[in-house]
């Protein structure tokens, strides 16, 4: 057998716990250095309140991707430390809002100095190590959230697989869409926004991008773009001409619907053009119905469709 230090990925859990402990210790030292006198675990809540002012516990939990129970506990601890105050919302008396008190607001400049200094330090670490730790953690979290390691260990390896987007897929995502759009039309401003910056325009706005791999080679893509609380748009579906006829579009569409259900979406919406007969037929096969929706930001759009993911309409 190998020694424990030679196990590599198998010892990942231990390595991550050790790294988390080291980062937590460093955080305490950094907070002390900048006179930012809070517990490191309070930082996400403190930052949201410093950025947005008063907020409800529910909205804070959504913003920082924590559970309601976790945020409630932090709020209680911050109250005991004399950092926040709470009051009933003027618009809805059932909602309690929390905000930083004057003592905490006086700490915000030190918090900002600390954030700026850590940003510089992490950029230096990236140069030294050749790895962007934040990007790596973000990408791995995205890939494991719906397909954890425990489900991957006994997965059957298929020639065609649908995976979550990673930065290495940026050029493929853009090229596949440019190819099909340019065949019939010209690229429009909304296209360029999404294709030039998929992370900022889609992923960082609670959206998802999927890449179809054929024996490891990216040959297709599709995006799930958040429109509002319960509605998402199916967009930017493209399959390379070299891979058409293999059912990849259907697999992408099914993956989009599956993910939409997992995240609690109520309705999917899409826009297309009647020239794209195979695409429109695919959407109909997936269960989408034709509608007359709001005006589209795309000149080429003359088909609008929707799919409700529950039996009853919510609008």
Throw out a few tags for this protein:
315 residues, alpha+beta, Arc Repressor Mutant, subunit A, Aminopeptidase, three-stranded antiparallel sheet, 13 helices, 18% strand
What ranges have pLDDT less than 50 throughout 5 or more consecutive residues? Answer: none
CATH C-level class of the largest domain is: Alpha Beta
CATH superfamily of the largest domain: Gcn5-related N-acetyltransferase (GNAT)
- N-end to C-end Cα span: 60 Å
Largest sheet: 7 strands, mixed
Summed up, the domain count is: 2
Q: How large is the radius of gyration?
A: 23 Å
Q: What do these coordinates show?
A:
The chain has helices at residues 12-33, 43-52, 57-64, 68-80, 102-105, 108-129, 133-145, 149-152, 170-184, 189-196, 198-201, 248-262, 277-285, and strands at 55-56, 84-88, 96-100, 160-164, 208-214, 217-226, 231-239, 267-272, 289-291, 303-308. It is an alpha+beta fold and 315 residues long. The protein has 2 domains: 34-129, Orthogonal Bundle (Arc Repressor Mutant, subunit A), CATH 1.10.10.10; 155-308, 3-Layer(aba) Sandwich (Aminopeptidase). The strands form 2 sheets. Strands 4-5-6-7-8-10-9 form a 7-stranded mixed sheet. Helix 2 crosses helix 3. The radius of gyration is 23 Å and the shape is globular. The model has no long low-confidence stretch (mean pLDDT 90).
